[in-house]
């Protein structure tokens, strides 16, 4: 491990400079005007890989944003690691809540502050630098491939097709991803489960125009009132989703497994304090970690309609909108969920309004068995760096493409992430502790070492 | 009436030019940055009155926007008409739904299209021109005073104090206002009742920051879900408001009066068609006209929270907001309603969130007896111009200041409006038919004539 620490020490300033340059590209995939930034980020990744020592690197066009692919094949007989990451980031609104420019990274209190500092520019960048480190020190023990995409935050709509079309190129023994968190600063963890995702936008239309709320109020159904009632009706008094069929395919977790999950350290008071709520709430009969780990959710991600400006404008609005998402668990299918959601939403709409449901994206849940040799390699690598065995956790988050990889490429994924819950990913003031960043660069080469040994 | 028609014919182009200049001032009272426009509009009104023949006219400062006052006293022994109108307008959003520039009036299909074309620049302007017409033709039969304010659309927060401080100056026998509608193009009507208004903004806060909906979704209460449920719970299955005390003071209208109200022509199919809805909805046991005329309403004027931009950003938001308004009927008191609303809203908030309720403004309902001499004068004036007796109607709209006038100045108000329901006031593409505009200018001098005769 000495050569690893030495290389990091000698190059840490440069690592940050390069990362900050990547961060400065506002590659927000959900906003069309940032399309040119996606190409800038893709070219930046190409350069990053070639500089690190890749045999080749290329920017591939897709029907959406580009994918950067790079590889170094040291011996076709040796095992191959495929690194997956994403160069796109979430929007930055509400921008007024940021303490710094989201696209101008700053170091403060031992953390990097910026959009993408962690998710996923910071974490994927660790892989580029760990690769560079192995190449420059002649310690790369196996073949390595990188696939860095630009549409993860919008559900990877084109990466499935890219995998289909490039199966041979992407052939590997394991996929390695750092896009998840550790349980705590000093407790490494490996994510063994991810929730899937279904996301819908709904539009409720009442009158054909905004009406005067005095002249019409009381006699004409108000689409915001109606939408509120429809939303309220979709969750029952036990916080269970009322959509028929919603729970049909949910994989019930055995009491034994639930007991094991309950062993993970969790301080409810600390958790509540960290997010500033007096009480938690969720599906009756499940613990907080179960509610996010093994049970589906039903969240309003956004709602809007009528007058939302300053002051007291009276109006009976024509339309109300909401963005609704559900985190899915094995074996819920997002396409089936889209069907049952649409049918139910339409069925509960009163005759006073018309409704439109648009599925925006979705993905399957994923489970990684903990007896996989690659899982054990990740375990050992973490032990070396953190001095303790990583905890296997079911994450509430979604990386829909992970289950797609398994389906199309037939390859399992190791989710060895170095983020923290406090990183505020997807929120204002996203950050990534420097300690985690460097520990990531330390751990990855050890994963390669143990993985290559195990696969020998 | 011949001299009236002649004067209008000779000056109609100039009338429009002057009105369009007034419309071009974007005097939106609810948006602070338009403050300078309020002064422009006030000065414009001063000029309008002096040009029309007022003895004097002055712009008065208030704690908010200015008030323009003007008068012509032909004989202190004669009766006095006080004209009230407002120079401020509503915001123009959603701006993308306008077919024309809202502040650049255009004539098309026999209508004036612009923000304020009707409410209330167009309608108050008729009074300035009717006044001019009487002065220039030496037919003004009584004294006249004008009070044009700049905060009607935000609930006239400073006009009560202005009336208190200028009681002597504002002394009059009747207040005349055109800020209401006629039943139809060919059916004149005089508004004998107005609903009051209560308006609140609510804020629901869940976690102290936007959270990742994957990592937290299912375990932390979502403020949009919570707000939707709270709103839904405030209206029962009969569309009655569930707030305790809400209906306590509602003046129940006798079966006799309800029968009379039912005589007003009303075509439900036409009504539904004009606003593009399949079904109407409102409080069980009341007709559409009763629901807007004699019963209180409960409308969401706006709602917002979380991600409302393009695409599918997942977030468990920190906050959700709504603007809620209730049209009140006699004898509901908006201050009492603000108290019961706040108490109830706070009482139904679960422990998972904190809520804040801000009353934004309010006003009392108003009723005008139809045996008032001034009411009969308005009736006769309308008969002369429209060839039929105007229908007395209870409007669902609110002009909260009207009941304040009665309280402070002790003067009743005649609500002789010339708008149409199709004028889309407060909405995109507000318009005012030229026919109504000129009929207004024709009717007003006749009101003065009959009123002066009656009061002799």
From TrEMBL, chains A, B:
<keyword id="KW-0479">Metal-binding</keyword>
<feature type="domain" description="Peptidase M20 dimerisation">
    <location>
        <begin position="192"/>
        <end position="351"/>
    </location>
</feature>
<dbReference type="InterPro" id="IPR051458">
    <property type="entry name" value="Cyt/Met_Dipeptidase"/>
</dbReference>
<keyword id="KW-0645">Protease</keyword>
<dbReference type="GO" id="GO:0008233">
    <property type="term" value="F:peptidase activity"/>
</dbReference>
<dbReference type="GO" id="GO:0006508">
    <property type="term" value="P:proteolysis"/>
</dbReference>
<protein>
    <submittedName>
        <fullName>Succinyl-diaminopimelate desuccinylase</fullName>
    </submittedName>
</protein>
<keyword id="KW-0378">Hydrolase</keyword>
<dbReference type="InterPro" id="IPR002933">
    <property type="entry name" value="Peptidase_M20"/>
</dbReference>
<dbReference type="InterPro" id="IPR011650">
    <property type="entry name" value="Peptidase_M20_dimer"/>
</dbReference>
<dbReference type="Pfam" id="PF01546">
    <property type="entry name" value="Peptidase_M20"/>
</dbReference>
<dbReference type="GO" id="GO:0046872">
    <property type="term" value="F:metal ion binding"/>
</dbReference>
<dbReference type="Pfam" id="PF07687">
    <property type="entry name" value="M20_dimer"/>
</dbReference>
């Amino acid at each position: 491990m000495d050569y690893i620490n030495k290389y990091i020490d000698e190059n840490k300033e440069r690592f940050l400079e390069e990362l900050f340059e990547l961060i400065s590209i506002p590659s927000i995939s959900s906003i069309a005007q940032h399309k040119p930034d996606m190409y800038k980020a893709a070219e930046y990744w190409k350069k990053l890989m070639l500089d690190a020592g890749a045999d080749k690197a290329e920017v591939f066009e897709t029907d959406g944003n580009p994918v950067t692919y790079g590889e170094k094949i040291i011996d076709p007989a040796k095992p191959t690691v495929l690194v997956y990451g994403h160069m796109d980031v979430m929007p930055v609104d509400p921008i007024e809540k940021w303490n710094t420019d989201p696209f101008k990274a700053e170091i403060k209190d031992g953390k990097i502050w910026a959009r993408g500092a962690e998710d996923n520019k910071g974490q994927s960048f660790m892989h580029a630098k760990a690769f560079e480190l192995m190449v420059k020190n002649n310690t790369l023990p196996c073949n390595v491939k990188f696939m860095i995409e630009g549409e993860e935050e919008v559900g990877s709509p084109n990466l499935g097709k890219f995998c289909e079309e490039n199966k041979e190129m992407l052939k590997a023994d394991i996929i390695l991803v750092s896009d998840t968190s550790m349980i705590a600063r000093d407790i490494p963890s490996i994510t063994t489960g991810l929730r899937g995702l279904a996301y819908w936008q709904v539009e409720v239309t009442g009158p054909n125009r905004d009406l005067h709320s005095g002249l019409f109020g009381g006699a004409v159904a108000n689409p915001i009132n109606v939408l509120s009632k429809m939303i309220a009706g979709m969750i029952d008094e036990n916080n269970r989703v009322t959509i028929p069929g919603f729970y049909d395919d949910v994989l019930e977790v055995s009491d034994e497994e639930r007991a094991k999950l309950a062993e993970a350290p969790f301080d409810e008071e600390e958790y509540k304090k960290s997010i500033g709520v007096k009480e938690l709430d969720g599906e009756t009969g499940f613990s907080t970690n179960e509610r996010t780990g093994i049970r589906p959710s039903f969240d309003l991600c956004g709602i809007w309609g009528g007058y939302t400006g300053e002051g007291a404008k009276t109006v009976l609005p024509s339309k109300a909108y909401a963005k609704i998402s559900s985190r899915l668990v094995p074996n819920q299918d997002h396409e089936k969920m889209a069907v049952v959601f649409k049918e139910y939403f339409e069925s509960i709409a009163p005759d006073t309004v018309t409704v439109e449901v648009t599925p925006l994206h979705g993905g399957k849940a994923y489970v990684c068995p903990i007896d996989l040799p690659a899982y054990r390699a990740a375990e050992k690598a973490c032990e070396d760096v953190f001095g303790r065995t990583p905890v296997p956790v079911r994450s509430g988050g979604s990386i829909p493409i992970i289950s797609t990889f398994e389906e199309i490429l037939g390859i399992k994924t190791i989710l060895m992430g170095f983020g923290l819950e406090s990183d505020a990913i997807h929120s204002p003031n996203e950050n990534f502790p420097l300690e985690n960043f460097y520990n990531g660069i330390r751990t990855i080469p050890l994963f390669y070492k143990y993985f290559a040994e195990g696969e020998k």
